[in-house]
Amino acid sequence: ELDQGKATLMCLANKGFPSDWSLAWKVDGSSSSISSSWEESRSPGVLEKDGHYSWSSTLRLPADQWRKVGSVTCEATQGSQTPLSETLRRDQCSQS
Fold first, then answer.
1. 34, 72, 87, 96: most buried, per Cβ within 10 A?
2. Using CA atoms, how far apart are residues 22 and 79, in angstroms rounded to an integer?
């Protein structure tokens, strides 16, 4: 979402177990590409009625910096489990 000069990206993960999975962002394939001025917020695991957990993470950055990004990846990790990820290319968005 682009609003008031900022781009907001949200990552949602659900049907997970156990509760200690964490979500992290990568920009153009690297976590070091994330600027310290960008806002990142994460929710702890929320227990759903079916006994699984859900998580969310939000990344907010200035719109002019979003226009320089090629892709953004949300990566879910837990202990020694193989990380799960989903990548969004900026050109897939309706407003880029």
1. 72
2. 10
